[in-house]
Amino acid sequence: MNYLPIFLDLRDRHCLVVGGSETAARKAELLLRAGARVDVAAPALHEGFARLPHADHLSRVADAFSPALLDGKDAVIVVEDDAPAGGTPAGAPLLRSDPSAASAAKAIADAARARHIPVNVADKPALCSFILPSIIDRSPIMVAVSSGGESPVLARMLRARLETLVPAAYGRLSALASRYKDRVREAIKPEQRRAFWEKVFLSPVAEMVFSGRDVEAEAQLDAMIKDGAEHDISRGEVYLVGAGPGNPDLLTFRALRLMQQADVIVYDRLVSQPILDMCRRDAERIYVGKERDDHAVPQEEINLMLVRLAKEGKRTLRLKGGDPFIFGRGGEEIETLVEHGVPFQVVPGITAAAGVASYAGIPLTHRDYAQSVAFVTGHLKENTFNMNWEGIARHDQTIVIYMGLKGLPLLCEALIKHGLNADTPAAIIQHGTLPTQRVITGDLTTLPALAEQAGLKAPTLIIVGNVVKLREKLGWFQPELHSEQAHRTPLEAADHLP
Ligand SMILES: C[S@@+](CC[C@H](N)C(=O)[O-])C[C@H]1O[C@@H](n2cnc3c(N)ncnc32)[C@H](O)[C@@H]1O
User: Fold this and answer.
1) Whose CA is nearest to atom 13 of ligand 1?
2) Which among 24, 107, 16, 30 is positioned nearest to 62, based on CA atoms?
3) Contact residues of ligand 1, CB 6 A cut-off
């Protein structure tokens, strides 16, 4: 080890920051967040200092460093001027007697070391007696990552990866454990305590805290303490998770975490293979997708299957395309769970309208073109639509039509009949957000024929309204149609029934 990682208790301790740049402000912020009182020596302060938390613990005590400022300090951070602090010339002297920033920093570091005060000089590991790691702050849980100053970018990248793995509510779980510490000490024998806490953290108690169900979590923990290590709470639970429009980069952190811990995955046809590949490898997978006019598994059966799996004690992930509550029948599924007293949580996903429109370069609202947006289903029932056309066919509104490929000619006809101009711009997007994305634009009279000529494959999304014109200027996503991945067609799906 080149360095020993330690965590300093700086609450109400005095620290010195030498330098007034934006970087110096960020270092001062770290010290303030750790509860320190911070003196700053700098000719002027960057405006970032004005936005720091706990400003009453910060004071600018001098415009340059002098050894007397080290009196009573527990840590020193030196930042050579990387940018002029508000209004002062770059490279303003840190040390009254020495205008050269480089040797000034060394002199300050030497002075601090001579007094055994830990010192850090930003970007100069050779001058440091301590270095600042990249931090994942889930206080009171802290994770610090360091490359020993050799590759800060790599350390930051690793930190970013860890950020996605550690739920934001980790700190709350730790706080819960802290509240129960004494009770557990009284109730559980010392030799069983460690196993007890491991069991708690691996039980649904943790998931309850992460999803904001703290009262339920406390009730479970109470029961576990009462019955000691013998208490076995069922892990059975349903996670109703939106997987977004298909591109795995558009999953939420929470979705990914639950995908990696579920025992069984119940998924639809719209869930792309790359997303399924990200689920826990040994999880059981149950396909319940539907094809047009051929319900692979009837909805009622899916609802009851979720109840059964959870009651068998399985953490059951119901993975759905887009968002579970938008044309996803998520509401019906959780209604059945409620009726059967099965615990569940819902994780929103990026709905096709939002994801596909973004990747097609079509903003759904725009000050000049559309003040509202309607999400409608274009699913035909006995060759007609069940639609409030007056509320939908409006010139100042964008209409997003899910499941509309088959009914496209009838939809366009109906929109014109109910008042939209025949030349209203319209687009149909196949496999939005994916390498196989294709966007066909036209207007209400031309789009059906253009879509047919293009031989589009479902899933497709239709967008109608003047915002479609913006695509010419704002289209940004260049799907790599020739890439190997594109030929695998991640969503080889038929248009979906609601
Ligand atoms: C049963 S609905 C489910 C919608 C989903 N719950 C959502 O929030 O996006 C299926 C329809 O969503 C649309 N859709 C979903 N993913 C899509 C994609 N990647 N590209 C285009 N349309 C998509 C299509 O209209 C498809 O027929």
Assistant:
1) 402
2) 16
3) 245-246, 270, 320-323, 326-328, 351-352, 356, 402-403, 429, 431-433, 458-461, 495-496, 498
The 8-class DSSP code of residue 462 comes to: E
pLDDT score, position 85:
44
Q: Which pLDDT tens digit goes with each residue over 423-452?
A: 999 999 999 999 999 999 999 999 999 999
Q: How confident is the model at residue 488 (pLDDT cuts 50, 70, 90)?
A: very low
Tell how far the Cα of 404 is from the centroid of ligand 1, in angstroms.
Answer: 10
pLDDT over 70 (residue 394): yes
Q: Which two tokens stand for residue 408?
A: 């496209």
The lowest-confidence range among 35-44, 318-327, 382-391 is 382-391
Q: What is the pLDDT of residue 489?
A: 47
Kindly list the distances between the CA atom of residue 435 and the CA atoms of 351, 453, 456, 484, in Å, as whole numbers in the listed order. 18, 20, 14, 10
The residues, any chain, with a CB within 8 Å of residue 282's CB and separated by 6 or more, are none
Residue 461: other Cβ atoms inside 10 A = 29
Cα-to-centroid distance, 359 and ligand 1 (Å): 14
Task: Tell me which of 250, 302, 377, 402 to substitute to probe ligand 1's pocket, judged by most ligand atoms within 8 Å of the beta carbon.
Answer: 402
Residue with CA closest to ligand 1 atom 21: 460
**CA 461 / ligand 1 centre spacing (Å):** 7
Both tokens assigned to 13: 């301790």
Strand partners, 137: 142
Could you tell me which of 357, 450, 365, 362 has the C-alpha nearest to residue 408? Answer: 450
Judged by phi (left if over 0) then psi (alpha if -120 to 50, else beta), residue 35 lies in: left
CA 149-154-155 angle, 5° bins: 60
Identified catalytic residue from 268, 323, 443, 495: 268
- For 39, the enclosing helix (H) or strand (E) is strand 37-41
**Residue 495 CA: which ligand 1 atom is closest?**
27
Q: Is the pLDDT of residue 484 over 70?
A: no
Q: Report d(CA 456, CA 404) in Å as an integer.
A: 12
Identify the band that residue 233 occupies on the pLDDT scale cut at 50, 70 and 90.
low
120 vs 192, more confident: 120
Distance (Å) from CA 478 to ligand 1 centroid: 20
Set 27, 73, 106, 290: catalytic member: 290
* % of the chain at pLDDT higher than 90: 67
Average pLDDT over residues 16-35: 95
Output the CA 320–ligand 1 centroid distance in Å.
10
268 is catalytic: yes
Assess contact for 245 and 266: CB atoms under 8 A.
Answer: no
Q: Is the pLDDT of residue 196 over 70?
A: yes
Q: Are strands 372-377 and 119-121 parallel, antiparallel or unpaired?
A: unpaired
